[in-house]
Design brief:
The chain has 220 residues and is mainly α. Helix 2 crosses helix 3.
Length: 220
């Protein structure tokens, strides 16, 4: 069972009306801007409120402290990322495994790099937070989508979709995370992106050979 966030990290309320959603959007964008300019240590609800053009009282209607604010910001980011993965998986249902892997890499890499500075800031912002629940929720959604996608591949045959998914997801997500932690140059990042695709394709090719060989051996 996935445990929820600690009480201190919970938002006070969720915006329902369009005006409230606009206000929270402004608060989240202001939080990103403060994180980028000053870092997590200097981030305060007062600074964010000033940047967003709202009162501190309005801030507190939604977020009791800066930790809850940062937690909610990361929750929104991971929710959007999971949604993009789910959309890609739905679109790629029934395609060959190699095309699925390429599409998954492209989706994840693009999502992480289109605002690379924001991704780096969010990675740093949760270092001192207990974000296990967020990561578990993201992994559950992403794994359900990618496993179902791989299982639908015409060249999947009777191979183990969950194990294949676990391997590819670990390689893809882990490689992208490592690229950000290393602070790679654009040139090195592009090279890594190509090599990541090559590694996944080589893995699929080897597994296909082993599977074909096992079938041949069992029927001989």
């Amino acid at each position: 069972m996935t445990r929820g966030p600690k009480p201190a990290l919970k938002a006070r309320k969720t915006p329902v009306q369009s005006r409230s959603r606009v206000t929270v959007d402004a608060i989240f964008e202001a939080t990103i801007q403060v994180l980028l300019r000053e870092g997590m240590r200097a981030l305060t609800t007062t600074r964010v409120a000033e940047r967003a053009g709202v009162s501190v009282g309005t801030m507190y209607q939604y977020f009791p402290n800066k930790q809850a604010l940062v937690y909610a910001l990361n929750e929104r980011y991971l929710d959007a990322l999971a949604g993009r993965i789910e959309a890609t998986c739905a679109e790629m249902r029934g395609a060959p495994l190699a095309e699925m892997a390429e599409a998954l890499i492209d989706t994840y890499w693009t999502a992480k790099t289109e605002r690379a500075e924001v991704t780096r800031a969010l990675y740093r912002s949760v270092v001192e937070l207990d974000n296990d629940a967020l990561l578990q929720d993201f992994a559950t959604r992403a794994d359900a989508a990618t496993t179902a996608m791989f299982a639908s591949a015409p060249d999947m045959a009777d191979r183990d979709a969950p194990t294949l998914n676990l391997t590819l997801a670990a390689v893809i997500y882990g490689t992208v995370r490592n690229a950000f932690e290393r602070g790679l140059s654009d040139k090195d990042a592009r090279r890594l992106r190509r090599n990541l695709a090559d590694m996944c394709q080589a893995y699929l090719a080897v597994k296909a050979e082993h599977h074909t060989g096992a079938i041949a051996w069992s029927t001989s």
